[in-house]
Amino acid sequence: MTKQFDAKLTLLLAKIEAEFQRAIKYYRPMASYHEGYAVLKEEMEELWDEIKRKPTLRSKQRLREEAVQVGAMALRFLYDLCEE
Fold this sequence. Notes:
Elements: H1 3-26, H2 33-52, H3 60-81
Helix pairs in contact: 1-3, 2-3
């Protein structure tokens, strides 16, 4: 990996972790696989809604925010429901 790639990955993972920490603070743990799936699906649908917008109306910031939320909720699914 290049130094630039490492820096970008570190920044993205920090954003996902911050969103994950926010979710831990404000929301109860996921209670079931079904709930976890529903939360992930909702976040994916929000990302998809932004993707479907006309290119001139699409927001890269909103795309990043939604993608970070997808990553955070995937992590939350693992954290709450998939213990080793």
